[in-house]
Amino acid sequence: MSNTIPNKERMKLPRQHMPEIAADVRARNFEEVNLGFEANAAIIESLRCLACKTPTCTRSCPVGVDVKEFLARIIDKDYLGAAAVIRRDNALPAITGRVCPQEDQCEGDCLVAKRNESVAIGHLERFVADYERKTGQIGIPENAPSTAKKVAIVGSGPAGLSAAGDLVQQGHKVRVFEALHELGGVLVYGIPEFRLPKDIVRQEVDVLRKRGVEFETNVIVGKTVTVDELLGEEGYDAVFVATGAGLPQFLGVPGENLNGVYSANEFLTRVNLMRAYRFPDYDEPVYDCRGKDVVVVGGGNTAMDAVRTARRLGARNAYLVYRRGEEEMPARKEEVKHAKEEGIEFRMLTNPVELIGDERGWLTGVRCVRMELGEPGADGRRKPVPVAGSEFVIDASLVIVAVGTSANPLVQSTTPDLKTTKKNYIEADPETLRTSKKGVFAGGDIVTGGATVILAMGAGRKAAKGIGEYLSSGAWPLTVNG
Amino acid sequence: MFPIVNATLLAPGVKQFEIEAPRIARKQQPGQFVIIRIHDAGERIPLTIKSSDPKKGTITLVVQAIGKTTSLLNELGRGDAILDVAGPLGKPSEIEKYGRCVVIGGGVGTAIALPTAQALKDAGNHVTAILGARTKNLLILEKEVREASHEVFVMTDDGSYGGRGLVTDKLRELIGEADFVLAIGPVPMMRAVAEATRPRAIKTVVSLNSIMVDGTGMCGGCRVAIGNESKFACVDGPEFDAHQVDFGVLMQRNAMYRDAEQQLLAHFKEHRAEEVARVRGACAHV
Ligand SMILES: Cc1cc2nc3c(=O)[nH]c(=O)nc-3n(C[C@H](O)[C@H](O)[C@H](O)COP(=O)(O)OP(=O)(O)OC[C@H]3O[C@@H](n4cnc5c(N)ncnc54)[C@H](O)[C@@H]3O)c2cc1C
Ligand SMILES: Cc1cc2nc3c(=O)[nH]c(=O)nc-3n(C[C@H](O)[C@H](O)[C@H](O)COP(=O)(O)OP(=O)(O)OC[C@H]3O[C@@H](n4cnc5c(N)ncnc54)[C@H](O)[C@@H]3O)c2cc1C
Ligand code: FES
User: B10: which of A137, A185, B218, B250 lies 20 to 30 Å off by Cα?
Assistant: First the structure.
């Protein structure tokens, strides 16, 4: 069967609604907000696709997923086939279906959106990936015959995991080294359960294990073992560095050492990785938010995750303070919508200038200044400038700073011949992901700076290709000048 | 899983563990620590590596039971295992030829200072150790400290062993000859040492015990105020110039989770046997 509905009619079909937990209920728990499409809704939603000759959705997807094709398979109720189509380009569909900024990518350029709302490509991706997971039939491709080559991957975020999958498939022996005790990178320590259940990440890891990938946690490359040792006495033929951009930035305003001041990384790590939301069943504590006022500073996904987490931990008032306007917020639109429904109070065009504490060193408030948008800066975005004399205080006993992160430095500082940028990101050839050091590749946030899951996933796959070519040819043309 | 191959009680509440961790044993330098997590509902806590045996593939830790995690750990022994051990973390101690060094250990700080004292001695320094304890039976590792230094003074609060008084009382007697001081112990002790050496501008180093989570620079929870800057104790330290440290901020931040810690400890004391059984149960699975 295929789509027999005339295009004009398709344009009139309403976008299917994603069922979700009611806002007042979910603002008190950590259950996943979105419940997922039923098969029927998925089929109707797929029928909305115009099946364009040159699909803009595929062009706008960072990894070029064949959207038209996988939607056609859904219409045919061939859900596993649909998943297989996605997996040709995307190794982690259950994850990206949940966290990709679809409105800036596939859905952003969807032609249907000219008259109606775009096709819900992300929700459909999630639907087929979940279907595949539930049947327990995640496509396990056959590995090529063993090449007797060994590859070490540093970091188990989306870049490392997707490289691992492709590399075992090429027949190499693959071992992933992870600094933390749990695998998944930001997917487990950063993104909360209510957006991305940890079981999904665990299942992806289990599949990789079945495919032959080895994992070693608690190894901090640069401390526990160096890249040179991996290439030397440990006998690896290539190393892929995918360590992410996990270092927190603070505001640089007075009062940042007060009790009650967190980086988003610390707050989210305590709650997600260490499960502090289940204290005292889990031992790691986190600031007791119950009945307290909480300010989160920032406008990205991290800020949104932090403020919604504080809300779920019982915050009375949870404010989001951002120096630009709502339109400029880099967070996914769905998160902004969900946050508002959950009662998060948005304080846009506002910037903290001082954190105020009591005599015991505990935070009591955040002094802020109002901002207005001035001339466009170097990045083309209008620069926020403070409005003189507009200072005011938001009472709060907890402030969480989510204003960006920087490169994880441990590999760079212990691998002297690895060329880095001024900001200490690793330089890598954009096509092959080769670095300045023979046998070493790098990709994901550690090369690009904080970006997205899909880009990190894409980088992992590119690296696997680059590594495969290197392992068969042994050639190392200089592209990153040492 | 990191098996415990040996465990010895050094003093009431203070236990020494030898743990299989071959990668860490190969890499450890004085002043570095590990982060451990005992079981899958446990918290991550930092512990200094007292020594390591690269051939045997083991590291040695000395643990003082303070709250839940350290108390639970100290219930374990040979044959048990720790779920996660990551390291070696932190910067190694800066070992130079300073001349006459005074190494001060208070309580479990003695264990933390020991490897650095040995390294200072090996580098050709004259090492004088001052060990402090509340009372005689709480003094630990005296014999090993004697081997790692040229002379040792012991100070107890109650005078039950060595001199009576504080380690700083002894330090003041020796201060005229000191070129370098290392002090590791309770924060008030380290602060007092810093104040004692400040007027003479004697280079003084302390090891800061701020609250840590990852231990790799990723969370910033361990930040300490050094001079006018914020530093992450886990990657920029844990050793810092004592005269630059804001000890007030350290004490204030270390009190951040007091209520939660007391709640966990109270619960642990009532359910000690179950908690230990749970760790052992988890070990049996692996
Ligand atoms: C809170 C939060 C929410 C986000 N939300 C979204 C979203 O909704 N959608 C989206 O597309 N993107 C989102 N992002 C961004 C996205 O998660 C990242 O771009 C992506 O995870 C980068 O992948 P990576 O594999 O490069 O690195 P990471 O995911 O950062 O993984 C790196 C891994 O390497 C490990 N590591 C670091 N140093 C070492 C070392 N020396 N030795 C061994 N291991 C090491 C780290 O512990 C980590 O596990 C979010 C980020 C955060 C922090
Ligand atoms: C670099 C470093 C090296 C250390 N080395 C040793 C050592 O060799 N031997 C030893 O006995 N102790 C050492 N400590 C202290 C040890 O980590 C704490 O005693 C332990 O974390 C307390 O945990 P708890 O659950 O038993 O007690 P809690 O009841 O949870 O806490 C008691 C006190 O310990 C501190 N603390 C709590 N949680 C943490 C944490 N996650 N990280 C750091 N401190 C915390 C706080 O000041 C708290 O008030 C070291 C600390 C640091 C930072
Ligand atoms: S413990 Fe997290 S940065 Fe130091």
Answer: B250
Region B222-227 average pLDDT = 96
**Contact at 8 Å (CB) between B218 and A248?**
yes
Question: How far apart (Å, rounded) are the C-alpha atoms in residues A62 and A59?
Answer: 8
Nearest CA in chain A to B29: A223
- Test the A interface: residue of B33, B45, B72, B213 with most A CBs within 10 Å: B213
Predicted confidence band of residue A482 (pLDDT cuts 50, 70, 90) = very low
Query: Mean pLDDT throughout A60-74?
Result: 94
- List own/partner pairs for A6-9 with CB under 8 A and 24 or more apart: A7/A50
* Range with lowest mean pLDDT among A47-51, A135-139, B205-209: A135-139
Considering its fold, how many domains does chain B have in total? Answer: 2
Q: Mapping DSSP to helix (H, G, I), strand (E, B) and coil, where does residue B106 land?
A: strand
- Taking the CA of residue B212 as reference, the ligand 3 atom at the shortest distance is 1
List all residues 6 or more positions away from B218 whose beta carbon is below 8 Å from its beta carbon: A246, A247, A248, A265, A269, A408
Q: Is A216 exposed, middle or buried (0-12, 13-18, 19+ CB in 10 A)?
A: middle
State the pTM of this model: 0.95
**Option in B43, B87, B218 nearest A265 (CB):** B218
Question: What residue ranges define each of the domains in chain A, with the CATH number in brackets?
Answer: 7-135 (1.10.1060.10), 150-246+407-473 (3.50.50.60), 248-404 (3.50.50.60)
- Model confidence band, residue B279 (pLDDT cutoffs 50, 70, 90): confident
Residue A386 amino acid letter: P
Instruction: Enumerate residues 6+ apart whose C-beta is below 8 A from B55.
Output: none
In a mutational test of the B interface, the residue from A283, A398, A446 whose CB has the highest number of chain B CBs within 10 Å is A283
Q: What b/e sequence results for A116-131 when a residue is b if at least 16 CB atoms lie within 10 Å of its CB, and e otherwise?
A: bebbbbbbbbbbbbbb
CATH number at residue B204: 3.40.50.80
A133 near A55, Cβ under 8 Å? no
Strand order through the sheet with A345-347: A261-263, A398-401, A293-297, A317-321, A345-347
Residue B250 shares a structural domain with residue B178: yes
Res A364 pLDDT > 50: yes
Same domain, B249 and B264: no
| Mean pLDDT within A398-423 | 94
Domain residue limits at B70: 2-89+259-284
**Contact between B264 and A259 using a beta-carbon 8 Å cutoff:** no
Window 146-165 of B, Cβ < 8 Å to A: none
B264 contacts in chain A (CB < 8 Å): 280, 283, 285
Residue of B83, B213, B264 with shortest CB distance to A266 = B213
Secondary structure of A119-143 as H, E, C letters: CCHHHHHHHHHHHHHHCCCCCCCCC
pLDDT: which is higher, A239 or B175: A239
Least confident range from A373-387, A417-431, B11-25, B142-156: namely A373-387
Residues B33 and B145 in one domain: no
Q: How far B67 CA lies from chain A's nearest CA (Å)?
A: 11
Euclidean distance between CA atoms A332 and A171, whole angstroms: 38
**pLDDT at A301 (0 to 100):** 96
In this structure, the answer to whether residues B140 and B235 fall within a common structural domain is: yes
B95 in any annotated domain: no
Do residues B100 and B180 touch, judged by C-beta distance below 8 A?
Answer: yes
Quick one: pLDDT at residue B286? 46
**How confident is residue A481, by pLDDT bands cut at 50, 70 and 90?**
low
Q: To the nearest whole percent, how much of chain A has pLDDT over 70?
A: 98
CA A17 to chain CA centroid, nearest Å? 24
pLDDT, residue A3, reads: 83
ipTM: 0.94
Q: Is the dihedral of CA A191, A220, A258, B63 positive or negative?
A: positive
Mean pLDDT calculated for residue range A322-337: 94
